[in-house]
Design brief:
By secondary structure, this protein is of the alpha/beta class. Helix content is about 35%, strand content about 10%.
Length: about 400
């Protein structure tokens, strides 16, 4: 579950942010959109008691969760200890980095938080869309925060948004992130419609009948250019950095190639296991589906376990597989893609069937190019050899990349 301690409230106003608009769901002052102690305790207790595994993961998200302050996160630790039931509790937090201080970083280091920091690359890439509300770029503040994480030995990964501008600079961004100290990278492509079709039907689940051709925003990434972006990254990574730098997209492909569960839902066969708890306890099906028709209920009224195991949520999760167009079901790369994220299924297949992923052509290009390399790495793993052996193979392979 992604927990939103301050809802969509943020100190930045990034052009491509899909979550800022969620303030319209909860009108009023930002100071009122804060998770209170009752909701927090219910969320923590229900999460721990409903988790069968020994390790319980908490993910704090936003908006900008650091706006909730130290008092809130100290309370988080107290409540996790109170309800811990002998389980191992782990915390992660996603931040834009501009509010990080020595005090915050000492706190995260002392309590072993994993921090995700949003950085889109060098200054011209980052500041192109990631700005404060006054229009000033946030790069300097972000990098100051990232360096503080390194200084205090806080574990971190980077999340970089790939948009219409940054997609032009794959190697510049990749090398920048490596030089900045990132060894775990996630690249998130922007696919954003200019409108949203409201869903119809009493069952309120994702319905392919609503997926008609729509226009996308100017900052949405072009599918084929995105494919080229991934290929360029991969060509550099596979010769130099396998086993040393980890790119989530590549990890997902290798997992699916091996037939094991991928690390994130985007590449999984079904979804529905990554809900959102808003500041007031409202639960939604997914971070990308925080709309009234995807509200499952409130943890103050029904348990988190009941809401996430509801038939509505189960249908939502199954749709990822059940709602695939025939075009996708016949695709040679289906097991690598699994239709990608349902939010991106806004295109039409060549035969006119709705529900094709907007990124399809670029992803196919990427899968086709990388197939022999992932095949090699998978074979190494099956024989209990390190997949990093692919680096030497890639350098000597003909035709060379």
């Amino acid at each position: 579950m992604l927990a939103k301690p301050v809802g969509s409230t943020c100190n930045l106003k990034c052009t491509y942010c899909y979550y800022l608009e969620k303030e319209n769901l909860y009108p009023g002052q930002a100071s009122l959109r804060q998770m209170d102690d009752r909701v927090l305790e219910d969320f923590i207790a229900q999460t721990i008691y409903s988790t069968r595994e020994r390790v319980v993961l908490f993910a704090w998200h936003g908006g900008e969760p650091l706006l909730r302050g130290f008092g809130f996160f100290n309370k988080v630790l107290q409540l996790q200890k109170k309800h811990g039931a002998g389980k191992l509790i782990e915390n992660s937090l996603q931040t834009n980095g501009t509010l990080l201080t020595n005090e915050w970083c000492r706190f995260f280091s002392d309590h072993q938080f994993l921090i995700g920091i949003s950085v889109d690359g060098p200054v011209h890439c980052h500041d192109h869309y990631r700005k404060y509300s006054n229009g000033e770029g946030s790069f300097a503040g972000c990098m100051k925060g990232l360096n503080l994480l390194i200084q205090h030995k806080v574990e971190f990964n980077t999340l970089s948004v790939v948009n219409d501008y940054t997609v032009q600079f794959p190697l510049e961004i990749y090398n920048f992130l490596k030089n900045a100290g990132s060894r775990f990278m996630q690249f998130l492509p922007v696919v954003e419609r200019t409108d949203r079709c409201a869903l119809t039907g009493a069952d309120k689940h994702f319905d392919s009948r609503t997926l008609i051709p729509v226009s996308v925003t100017s900052h949405t990434v072009d599918p084929d250019t995105y494919g080229n972006f991934l290929i360029t990254l991969f060509n550099d990574w596979v010769k130099k950095d396998v086993g040393e730098c980890f790119v989530l997209t590549f990890d997902c492909v290798l997992a699916n190639w091996m037939g094991v569960p991928p690390p994130v839902c985007v590449s999984a066969e079904t979804c529905g296991n990554a809900g959102v708890v808003e500041f007031n306890g409202d639960v939604y099906s997914c971070d990308h589906f925080v709309f009234p028709e995807y509200r499952l209920g409130n943890i103050r009224e029904k348990s988190l376990l009941t809401l996430m195991n509801s038939e509505i949520q189960r249908r939502f999760g199954r749709y990822k597989k059940d709602g695939l167009p025939a075009y996708c079901r016949r695709c040679e790369f289906l097991k690598l893609c699994n239709g990608e994220c349902p939010k991106n299924r806004i295109s039409i297949t060549p035969s006119g069937e709705p529900g094709l992923n907007y990124l399809c052509s670029g992803l196919k290009k990427f899968y086709r190019h990388t197939r022999p390399f992932f095949d090699f790495m998978a074979n190494e793993l099956r024989h209990k050899r390190p997949p990093s052996n692919v680096k030497q193979w890639a350098l000597t392979r003909r035709p060379a990349i």
